[in-house]
Amino acid sequence: MRTRAYFLFLAITSCLLIWYYINQLVDRSTRTQDMSGRLILAGGVTKFKDNDRTEISLVVVACNERHNEALNMLKSAIMFNHNRTPLRFVVIAEEKLKINFMEKLNDWQQLTDRVFTYEIHSLTFPRANKNEWRKLFKPCAAQRLFLPSLLSHLDAVLYIDSDTIFLSSVQEIWNLFRQFNASQFAGMAPEHEDKNAGWYNRFARHPYYGDLGVNSGVMLMNLTRMRQFSWQDHILPIYREYRLRLVWGDQDILNVLFHYHPDRLYVFPCEWNYRADHCMYMTVCDAPDGVKIIHGNRGYFHKQAQPIFNLIYTTIEEYTFGTDVYKNVIRTIEESLMLPSHSNCDKLLDKFLYDPRKHFKKKPIDGMT
Ligand SMILES: *[C@@H]1O[C@H](CO)[C@@H](O)[C@H](O)[C@H]1NC(C)=O
Ligand SMILES: *[C@@H]1O[C@H](CO)[C@@H](O)[C@H](O)[C@H]1NC(C)=O
Ligand SMILES: [Mn+2]
User: Where are the transmembrane segments (predicted)?
Assistant: First the structure.
């Protein structure tokens, strides 16, 4: 009788232990699964615990040959993060590109004393209406429309196109969230500054935001508020109604949405999304404190039409972490630009280097005081 009670006790404790252990495992794996149930790859543990240094999340979607651009953008975010704000990179990528991102980002974590963490997600559509979404959009183009549900663990993100480069600290644009009033949940820059050159006011066959529309390449998103607004429930009807008239894909959908909900959008000035359109004919973007984020849309980083776009891109690409930014970036750009140039954008060299020059100075030569 005694031994039977003893075995019963043993059996129950083992069961409890096993149950506890399994729970722990399940708990841990659900935390690293994305919406589609596939495992996401997460790297690094953030080193920063003090509360005044909130982590900043940067989201980029990368398909096809876009992954080099995306990596270069993330590299610039690290380089100009002069106050070492903790960063979280959220990369949403095709399966075949994931390993490239992982290798590069792991490397950079070592070289930058883990100033950033990262997570890599699969391209994912929401469970509800999954098949309908899949049929309606090319996978990469519309991914950002689903960020509020895909990134349910995040309060807010900066969504940024892969064809962009930071020339200022991410903290600076993130601070614009503080300017949002109670109803605003997104921030974007105007598509154009000038009615004569505007695309939406001349060609669009659907409603758009304001006088000239907005450009979606750089977008602050308060995901919490977007979820409260039931964001996705607004997207599908817009798509159904306007899909045959959309030219610029998800950017047009955003323009339609904010046409009907202008109180939800905070419009920030053009220096946060600076494109060749702003300088190629004449300067239409003041950028009084310099260009903060440069957007090489329509391939300007990869052609010589406005050489400074390509020069900035390749100089960042060739930079090695840990080396002198003043010498290897600022001086290199100054010395490589052939002036006088026939390109109007090249003439604005001082606008492009305004912020980097402020934070990275020439190092005093040894032996001199
Ligand atoms: C986003 O909105 C929520 C709800 O209003 C707010 O608590 C949160 O601080 C906002 N996030 C940012 C980064 O502004
Ligand atoms: C926030 O600002 C927008 C644009 O100025 C405005 O339309 C909206 O009414 C404001 N919302 C609140 C709650 O003040
Ligand atoms: Mn772009």
Answer: 5-22
pLDDT along the chain (369 residues), means of 10: 67 64 46 39 46 83 89 98 96 94 97 96 78 65 88 97 97 98 98 87 89 95 98 90 83 95 98 97 95 96 96 98 96 91 94 97 71
Q: For the chain, what is the radius of gyration of the CA atoms?
A: 24
Q: How far is the CA of 222 from the centre of ligand 1 (A)?
A: 6
Looking from the CA of residue 178, the nearest atom of ligand 1 is 14
Residue nearest to atom 3 of ligand 2 (CA): 263
Centroid of ligand 1 to alpha carbon of 228 (angstroms) = 11
CA nearest neighbour of 242 among 203, 205, 191: 205
Q: What is the pTM of this model?
A: 0.85
Ligand that comes closest to the CA of residue 176: 1
CB 116 within 8 A of CB 88: yes
Distance CA(268)–CA(174), nearest Å, equals 12
Choose the residue to mutate in 88, 153, 223, 225 for probing ligand 1, maximizing ligand atoms within 8 Å of C-beta: 225
Phi/psi zone of residue 65: left (φ > 0), alpha (ψ -120 to 50 degrees), beta?
Answer: alpha
β-pair partners for 90: 59, 119
Domain ranges of the chain: 56-272, 278-290+299-359
**Ligand 2: nearest atom to the Cα of 266:** 4
43 CB neighbour count, 10 Å cutoff: 16
CATH T-level topology, domain 56-272:
Spore Coat Polysaccharide Biosynthesis Protein SpsA; Chain A (3.90.550)
Gap between the Cα atoms of 85 and 78, Å rounded: 9
- Residue 54: CB within 6 Å of ligand 1? no
